[in-house]
């Protein structure tokens, strides 16, 4: 269990670093575009395209991090008004709905990416499937997160701890 937590922490640290690198490259590309256009009066086409493509990846990887840290806007006010058990049940139901939506989005993202394998971008001349791959990749990570989160919520909600006569407990 401790080893799994270490691996999870390492994975998300690598994801953080990769996302930061994408933001840095996107910022440099956009800065280069502004510099070329307004200082040298010679606009370049590829930095704008690169910036748009990287932005798509940044968004989908960023949503994974937001979902992991449970920073998405949610029903906190409703949870405060409900009894704890009802709030936990609502959180579990919400997680199931989000998981279902993400599975549908994963299927659609995969199909969209597959249709774009032959299309080439204008300025960078890369297959558009590379850009559209952000959708199924990011969504797959979100599906895995929501799956494990839903399992944890279900355990908390439906599995009761049994206690022994000596004060010990079984899960």
Uncertain spans, ≥5 residues at pLDDT below 50? Answer: 167-171
Helix and strand content put the structural class at mainly alpha
Binned, the helix content reads over 70%
- H/E order of the elements? HHHHHHEE
Euclidean distance between termini CA atoms: 15 Å
Cα gyration radius (Å): 22 Å
Query: What's the shape?
Result: elongated
Strand order of the largest sheet: 1-2
| Number of strand segments | 2
On the 0 to 100 scale, the average pLDDT is: 88
Largest sheet: 2 strands, antiparallel
Q: Strand content of the residues, in percent?
A: under 5%
Count of discrete alpha- or pi-helical segments spanning 4 or more residues: 6
Ordered list of secondary-structure elements with their pairings:
Elements: H1 2-39, H2 46-68, H3 76-81, H4 84-115, H5 128-132, H6 134-158, E1 162-163, E2 169-170
Antiparallel strand pairs: 1-2
Describe this structure in words.
The structure is a single chain. The protein has helices spanning 2-39, 46-68, 76-81, 84-115, 128-132, 134-158, and strands at residues 162-163, 169-170. The chain is mainly alpha-helical.
From the structure above, extract its key features.
single chain, 171 residues, mainly alpha, two-stranded antiparallel ribbon, elongated, disordered C terminus
């Amino acid at each position: 269990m401790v080893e799994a937590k270490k691996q999870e922490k390492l994975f998300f640290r690598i994801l953080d670093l990769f996302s930061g690198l994408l933001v840095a490259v996107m910022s440099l590309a956009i800065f280069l575009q502004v510099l070329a256009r307004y200082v040298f009066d010679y606009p370049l086409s590829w930095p704008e395209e690169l910036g748009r493509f990287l932005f798509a990846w940044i968004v989908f990887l960023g949503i994974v991090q937001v979902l992991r840290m449970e920073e998405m806007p949610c029903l906190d006010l409703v949870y405060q008004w409900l009894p704890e058990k009802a709030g936990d049940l609502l959180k579990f139901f919400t997680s199931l709905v989000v998981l279902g939506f993400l599975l549908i989005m994963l299927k659609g993202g995969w199909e969209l990416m597959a249709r774009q394998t032959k299309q080439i971008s204008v300025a960078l001349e890369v297959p558009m499937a590379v850009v559209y791959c952000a959708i199924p990749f990011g969504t797959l990570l979100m599906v895995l997160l929501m799956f494990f989160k839903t399992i944890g919520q279900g355990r908390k909600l439906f599995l009761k701890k049994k206690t022994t006569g000596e004060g010990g407990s079984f899960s």
